[in-house]
């Protein structure tokens, strides 16, 4: 398959490099000039416990790309989705499509710009980090799921799935991609909370002082999903049923235990959210990932006080007005009604 991968960072770089190694025709686009230069000069190097290789793949800055593509994987930060989709549109063939390998509900944004029939859903939960120009760490396997946003099985989805199997032989197709995306939103809200501290994901989720908080923030997100008629899907230890309204506390605790075990097996110890603040010194996907939860909850009359408070605290941490610390997480915990 010939694919354009727009965004050659942790997710896009890992996917694209593995697919190139599998024999597919990959072209990268990235807005970081030093990263593009390094890929063109030395190739994209994948490091980590799972893979060690260099992919020789052409890379371009957005303004330098020429030609059109039928298959496009979009792997930019959620807040950059609209701008990237508008930049991709002139390079998308009439019958082409964009696959959102991102966190959040970015398919809604993509479909608004290029149309629902040119949008394919994707859910990824593998661990990867951008280390330096031309170098990506692939740290841990995780769920990879593809699905049409209208739930149909289509020939193009089957073809895309066969291609993604060259990256992960456990990749699957679903008729409920929105269920996976909302499941990831609930888990993602938990990860945003862990990023208020410097603890690893596993250590944070294992901390008994904050387990009630992590349970309730997932429940808050899933109440919105339920009110909107979405049936969330589970993955990698995250069991949406364990965080459903009315679920026994012990069941939620067991799911947290499984999530801790999953994350302890990964060389990626901290979330990309934490890394954006602590390492890369840039804004996170807070507004693009958590903001829609609040807005969509408001449309169906579901209150989201914890997510709203989390957004406030994340902004304060991003702006340097609060440290990443347990004291900051305590401020979120204080918003929990017990």
What would you note in describing this structure?
Helices cover 44% and strands 17% of the residues. It is built from 13 helices and twelve strands. The strands form two sheets. It has an eight-stranded mixed sheet, sandwiched between helices. Strand 1 (2-6), helix 1 and strand 2 (25-29) form a beta-alpha-beta unit. Helix 3 (81-88) runs parallel beside helix 4 and helix 6 (177-194) packs across helix 11 (286-299). The N and C termini lie far apart (53 Å).
Q: How is this structure best summarized?
A:
By secondary structure, this protein is of the alpha/beta class. Helix content is 44%, strand content 17%.
Order of helices and strands: EHEHEEEEHEHEEEEHEHHHHHHHH
Shape field = globular
The major beta sheet can be summarized as: 8 strands, mixed
The count of helical stretches stands at 13
Proportion of strand residues: 15-25%
Average pLDDT across residues? 96
Structural class: alpha/beta
Any idea what the radius of gyration is? 19 Å
